[in-house]
Amino acid sequence: MENLVRRQYIISGIILLTAMVFVAKLFRLQVLSSAYVQYATNNVLRKVVQYPARGLIYSRNGKLLVYNKAAYDLLVTPRELGSFDTLSLCNMLNISVDYLASEIKAAKKYSYYKPSIIVTQISSEDYAYFQEQLYKYPGFYVQPRTLREYPRSIAAHILGYISEASQELINKDNYYNPGDYTGATGIEKKYERYLRGEKGVKYFLVDVHSRQKGSYENGKRDVPAIVGENIITTIDMGLQEYAESLMQNKKGSIVAIEPSTGEILAMVSAPYYDPNMLVGRSRGVNYARLSTDSLKPLFNRALMAEYPPGSTFKIANSLIGLQEGAINNYTSFSCSGPASYPIRCTHDHVSPLSIQSAIRESCNPFFWNNFRLIIGNYSTTAEGYNTWRNHVLSFGFGHKLGTDLLSEMDGNVPLESFYNNIYGRRHWNAMTIRSMAIGQGELLVTPLHLANFAAVVANRGYYIVPHVVRSVQGYNSEKETLGFAKKTSSVKPEYFEVVINGMQDVVEKTSLRYTTRVQGIEVCGKTGTVQNPHGSDHSVFIAFAPKDNPKIALSVYVENGGWGSRYAAPIASLVIEKYINGSIANSRKWLEKKMLDANLLDTIQPE
Amino acid sequence: MVRRNTVVGNIDWVTVVIYIILVFLGWVNIYSAVYNEDSQGIFDISQRYGKQLVWIGAALVLAFFIIIIESRFYVFFGYLIYGIMLLLLISVLIFGTEVNGARSWFIIGGFGFQPGEFTKFATALALAKYISQYNFKMYRLKSLAIIGFIIFFPALLIFLQHDTGSALVYTVFILVLYREGLTGVVLFFILLVVVLFILALVISNTAILVFMLVISFLSFYIIHQKFKDLWKVVGVFGLIVAIVWGIGVFFNLQFTNVSVLLIGSVISALVFLGLSIRKRLHKISLLIVIFFGSLLFTISVGHVFENVLQEHQQARIKELLGIESDPLGAGYNVNQSKIAIGSGGFLGKGFLNGTQTKFNFVPEQSTDFIFCTVGEEWGFLGAFTVITLFIFLFIRLIWLAERQRSVFSRVYGYSVATILFFHFMVNIGMTIGLMPVIGIPLPFFSYGGSSLWSFTILLFIFLRLDANRLDRIL
Ligand SMILES: [Zn+2]
After folding, report:
1. Cβ(A159)–Cβ(A57) under 8 Å?
2. Fewer CB in 10 Å around end: N or C, chain B?
3. How large is the ipTM?
4. pTM, 2 dp
């Protein structure tokens, strides 16, 4: 047992040996080596975040829609503040002394050691002068940033804007720090992940006077920022600009789609605003002005305004009637004009008439009979209604289309249960919901829904989910083309031809031929008039062109524009002509001028 | 009754004073590490130093209660306490909250509690109770199995919580067992394993082989003590290697240096093994077995390293051994820590004047890297003082343990001393780049209620046992 007691010395020896090794190592680190003292008492590392340039946004033809310009943020580290000439600093930056004092106080509250941004987005002109004076202001320094700039003041709703990251986002995603910018709406938000790039870090050694003493360890630890990826949109810059000009002084929207690809060529929500307004130091003021404007310029009508489709919906009902066998190409119904029951006809035309003529004349009694037979084909109203409803949904109505645009609305195609709740099960029939036959009543669609429907007709039975971004391209990587789903309608292609002939007749054989016919292009369209309880009716038009191999499908809503033929159809024809022919024929210049000059904002008083 | 009144008088006040000095110094450094001019008052509960003050107050109360409880209580309930702690460990695995990747916390009302910290003293109690049994014998399969269970079951549970650092602490009980009679060969093997592990990662296979051959021949000489025989053995080995090399060249077998040495070693080993068995030289056979065991171990290290250890653990070890250097990644903490300590110089920058630790360059500065603040602000002198205080405490504890009359108290005392030592060794070793980055606290110094309380309980139970050392009932 005696030798076990001796083991205490071995254990103590291990402990002492460890301590001796530690002391020796510490002696080497602290006393012998001068390498570590090189970062001596007065030297402090400063970490400067390198902000990457945000990705650029291009039009479908490769023209710049959004680029960056340099701006600078002024930061302060309270601990390093010395005495300085407050007044001259304020004059240089064009800020008040009170503002500077309160910002410095806030910065101190945040941290003495970490820098806080106190003035944002100083222009490069101001910075050039300020930079030379900076040494007089210990504790202050400047960090470059990039601001968005829009060479043409268009497409604000599509592009969206950037704003400071919210606290919520900062908590959720550790990429963001207070004061960082992030996409707030539109493409800027949806494609933030691509656009933002990757932040870098640069380390500097600075002395107590906050003067840079050069990079730390020759920049070995610096991480360069990686530029954001560029976005190539589907927007045709010329067409977008032209469509916006046609909608000046009007409320409403234009959505134009390339049917074969689902690519959105132009999307206007009027009134619109200049995207340059929401950039830079005046952003706050402008934003407040826009958001309180009674005409709601920030509201994207193309995606978010829900209207009844009006008579344009007769195209959908025609297709469903043919698919369901409720009617065929030759089925005729008679029309008694204003005396018709249960829906009056507002047009004067031959009677009886079949589908192609009925579309041309927008004959309400014909479409009532068609609707009645679709529902009546089934043993119960509910079954008939659900069949009809499923066809409608297959055209893209009644739900979000799943585009890459944010804040799409669902629209509304009521569920069977909706009517059961109102009238009671089995206590309603086609008659009860007859307004559906002519696109009124509970039906609600967005301009995007209608444009997409025009594309379904143009494609004879399918659509590609509409989208505004075609591809993204990194700084050093392959272009990545984004894919969007193809959806097929439940109405078979063979039923489209007669309907399309009817739509061609609308443009060529009614009074529309004076305004909406375009020389050399077979345009197919359908007007609509949406009853508006708050004022003049809304003017609606859907169209596509050319009839064979369509290049463009679109919807136009002009609020308070009255008949569809009055504003929506001519505007649509101008958009088509501009896109396909590249310019407006001289014979139609008068029409273009009339549309450009039309001012529909003054005619109604805000309620 | 007389004895009970003298409990206070029997307490080892020297240890208590060292404890109080360490806790006080710890708090001063935490204060400095998190100090900024923005918040005032040392009682600011929103700051870590304010909270630590609360923990310290609670720890002192805890210490007081531990002292007034009868020492028989700790002996009697040793297994029960151990069992309860195991249950807590299991339940934290199931219901616990994950903090920094380790599922080892109960979070109750904003306060974190880490059962793993408290298992140390419970394990020490259980181990002491088992070893102090009347007819305990170390070298029985049953004893070894039970001891193994007592020590390594909690370690396994803590390991499962992904708290590798705290699990490794339990290996230090080997030192306690060594004091209680475990053969020194075990310590030798642990040393061998560590050395081989490092060598396997750092140097080439040929060099390891040569190194081990030299060691084997030296060991042979130490065991056998005959210089003449050593020359014979080396000669035979050389001859066999030469023959293998000759055959390789003659048949154009393209042997590498390693394979020549390896084949030579195997053949020589077989020859010597035969000889040693015939001549009944068992120690020589053992030597040969160890040689090949080590060889196998070295070969398997690469495999274990790449397949068993996690990537960040690999990176930390590579960083430590200088195989790979990544000052931004795995090496960042240690590099910053060394800059902080190194820039302290001989006398330090002075209280609250540290710059490296202030600017968040050293992560975890108030917990695992608290020693940086000591090194930066108090310099070599301060660091030396702290190390001396700790060493004094450890030696004092061993001395106290040796003066116990009961095995229970001695085993427990050694457990206290070695557990504290292991934390000291790994934590400070890590901050000065002598140990891989294993996140375990520096006793009494690091910020945190659980660790401070657990070390306080650990220490004061021993002081309580020591105060009763003259009692025979234990
Ligand atoms: Zn009619």
Report:
1. yes
2. N
3. 0.84
4. 0.57
